[in-house]
Amino acid sequence: MSTSKRGRRFERLLALIPFLQKNEGISLQDTAALFGITEEQLISDLNLIWVCGLPGYSHLELIDVSYDSGVITIDNAETLSRPMRLTFEEGTTLLLAIESLFDSAPISDLQALKNVRKKLLDLLELPNDNDGHSITAFEHSAEKKVEVLLPKLLKYLEDKDQTLHVEYYSATLDDIIHYRFQPLSIEHRQGRSYLIGFSSDQKQHLNLRLDRIVGVEPALDKEDERSSKAAGYLADQERSPMIVEVSVDASAYWFIQKWRLPEIHFDQSAGGFVGSISVFNPKWLERATLSAAGALVLQRPSQARSQVLRAAQRVLSHYQ
């Protein structure tokens, strides 16, 4: 039996159960005609339904089907009254799997993945933060953009004293940000490429996604001297990232989707998502946790919890 035949039969079985519940006592002949199959095929389907039920139940909870008199009766199928509807847990599990595919799928398949993701988000009544015109425009052909940009950046990196003017799209602000940037290296993490460096106007180290760099050119004037923070940054990067264990409220799936966190999974007993995050920039952790408004909770290590607590206290101090 080919995959397409198995698929068609599976779809038919899913449709057959609610149909029989609503049409108790319908004949084998009429049912076979309505579904476009022979009576022999229908009997085979009914025999398969007879051994079906939900996981975790005993044999007493299996569906009961009878067709001996030429008419079909079905019982004990209430738990499968809507077999084609995904539960929230099933839907979010599929969404997480789709998110992980975005980092490995060929660019020709990305649109199909986006379409499936949008359908799932609509079914689960979750927000779709990729519907915006700006995000779509900047992420279109991202792979090709990186291929074009990478040689240019590598050339700039050869000049140890090079200062760049970088135009960068911020998905958080949905706007273009301008950085005066001292590039240090290019790194690849979880399927993405990042330009690592020090922003002299922001006075902090930044990891800029290459696919969100809109433009980059040498600055008109170079820095008088390289920042001591920038000079020591590469050595700091050799350290392992901080691994933070987190829990995320079920209503905040958007957070996992936005940041593409592959190590987060749904825990039914907890009623939400749990897992770990690799944190390269402590400031990002502060912003992410505070912006989640309680939906993201840091479990451990304690230093990460203390860091976010201090950040929250600094914010609240302005309102006292």
Your description of this structure?
With 320 residues, the protein is an alpha+beta fold. It has four domains: 3-80, Arc Repressor Mutant, subunit A; 88-138, no CATH class; 141-235, SH3 type barrels (Roll); 242-317, Alpha-Beta Plaits, CATH 3.30.70. Helix content is 42%, strand content 23%. A five-stranded antiparallel beta sheet has the order 6-5-4-3-7. A hairpin with a 2-residue loop joins strand 4 (175-189) and strand 5 (192-199). Helix 2 packs across helix 3, helix 4 packs antiparallel against helix 5 (110-123) and helix 11 (282-291) packs across helix 12 (302-317).
Q: What's this, in brief?
A:
The protein is α+β, with helices and mostly antiparallel strands and 320 residues long.
CATH architecture of the largest domain: Roll
Count every helix, treating DSSP H or I runs of 4 or more residues as helices. 12
Count the E strands.
11
| Global mean pLDDT | 75
Please trace the helix and strand order, writing H or E for each element. HHHEEHHHHEEEEEHHEHEEHEH
From the N-terminal CA to the C-terminal CA, the straight-line distance is 71 Å
Structural class: alpha+beta
List keywords for this structure.
320 residues, alpha+beta, Arc Repressor Mutant, subunit A, SH3 type barrels, 4 domains, 5-stranded antiparallel beta sheet, 12 helices, 23% strand
